[in-house]
Amino acid sequence: MKLLTVIIFASVLLVVSAFTSFSRLPSSPKRCHLMKPLRATLIELEVGPEKFDNEVTNSKIPVIVDFYANWCGPCKLVAPIFKALAEDFDDVKFVKVDTDLHEEFVDKFNIQGLPLFALFINGKVVATHSGAISKEPLRQFINKNIAAQN
Predict the structure, then answer these.
(1) Whose CB among 13, 24, 53, 94 lies 3.0–4.6 Å from 57's, allowing a Cys bridge?
(2) Dihedral sign, CA of 105, 98, 118, 114?
(3) Would you give the distance in Å from CA 27 to the centre of its chain?
(4) Nearby residues of 72 by Cβ (< 8 Å), 6 or more positions away
(5) pTM
(6) Is 113 exposed, middle or buried (0-12, 13-18, 19+ CB in 10 A)?
(7) Angle between helix 135-149 and helix 73-88 axes, rounded to 10 deg
(8) How many angstroms separate the CA atoms of 56 and 46, rounded?
(9) Under a CB-based contact definition with an 8 Å cutoff, are residues 94 and 81 in contact?
């Protein structure tokens, strides 16, 4: 009974944190005033690895990839958060990859749990986060790791 109470409490906490802002960090890292802002992009990958290479590996801007599965509860929980962040950032591309349709990525990126967020800069994975995450911590994860590469 205590375990069930703990699980319910943790679930409620996760949902509440998903809708609560804990930070006042800017939505994107500082950039030179001469740079043109880019429109954010949310892409749901529905074809094979060749499109992944076009959209992620060969991207000129940072890319955050959400590896998910339709049956995954935490993946469904973070889907609207990921979509909302895609609208907040103007200099990061957001890509969703269904691991059930594209199982080759599970081995390629050693995916142990879902959802897995992988940040790519210059075609290389620079940081990953496995598991559900609320909006502000995900924003911080992206900003911190992009800033670390500059």
Answers:
(1) 53
(2) negative
(3) 14
(4) 114, 115
(5) 0.72
(6) exposed
(7) 60
(8) 14
(9) no
The answer on pLDDT for 107 being more than 50 is yes
Strand partners, 120: 63, 125
Tokens of 61: 């801007």
pLDDT band at 40 (very low <50, low <70, confident <90, very high): low
Identity of the amino acid at 114: L
CATH architecture of residue range(s) 38-149: 3-Layer(aba) Sandwich (3.40)
The neighbour count for residue 142, using CB atoms within 10 Å, is 24
The model's pLDDT over 56-96, given as tens digits with 9 standing for 90+, comes to 999 999 999 999 999 999 999 999 999 999 999 989 999 99
Provide, for the chain, the percentages of residues in helix, strand and coil under a 3-state DSSP scheme, each rounded to the nearest 5.
40, 20, 40
Question: Residue for token digits 């670390």?
Answer: 148
Q: Domain residues of the chain, as ranges?
A: 38-149
